Amino acid sequence: MQNNDQTLSSNTSDAAKELNATPMVLTDAAGEHVPAPYDSALLAFIHEGTEIRNPYVSPDGHTLVNPVSAYGFVEYHTGGGCMALMRPHTEGRVLYLTQDGIYIADPQDWRECVISVCDAEGNDLAYCDLAAVPSSNEAGHQNACENPFCPEELKLESPEALKERYRVWVQENLANDELEFDENASVSLCESGAFVQARIWVPFSSLPTPPDNADEGV
What we know:
A seven-stranded antiparallel beta sheet has the order 2-1-9-8-7-6-5. The protein has two domains: 17-132, no CATH class; 152-205, no CATH class. The chain is an alpha+beta fold. The chain is built from four helices and 13 strands. Residues 1-19 and 138-144 have low confidence and may be disordered.
């Protein structure tokens, strides 16, 4: 039984290593999507002499940036009400940044994004979750930029985890009969805190009396 357990553990470990080694999804000649090792020639670009693998991170890897102002991406309608950030690549190819295929992500939400590349005819070539892109200075290591929107002791906490902590705190400390906070409230992280979406109760009796001609047509 011990040998079987060791074999199972070894197989699981090998499978995890193989998955980490093939974070990119490549479209082969038959149009099938297959796992593949990350290829910077497809999904990275050169900006002022520096290879950029994560467009939401500064060239030095220390701060979050807006891909539009930092690297020249532009907002692009992909059809069906979907949006993406787009940037020309080499050989007529085009890079895209998407969040759930629909939204344009804020920099602090970069871990939810996918980077993809299409050829000059618009055919899909490859894509990869940004959170799985290996850093350029250490192969196989996730591109984990520190979170700059929190105190030093929380630097390594993910933005989404930090947002959830803000949601919990406001529900426990600020919520009352007039001020409500939804469990999925929007949270905008800032350097020294966060803005948390709230709902304020306003009774009809508080509204001023409308003008006498409010119901009259023009």
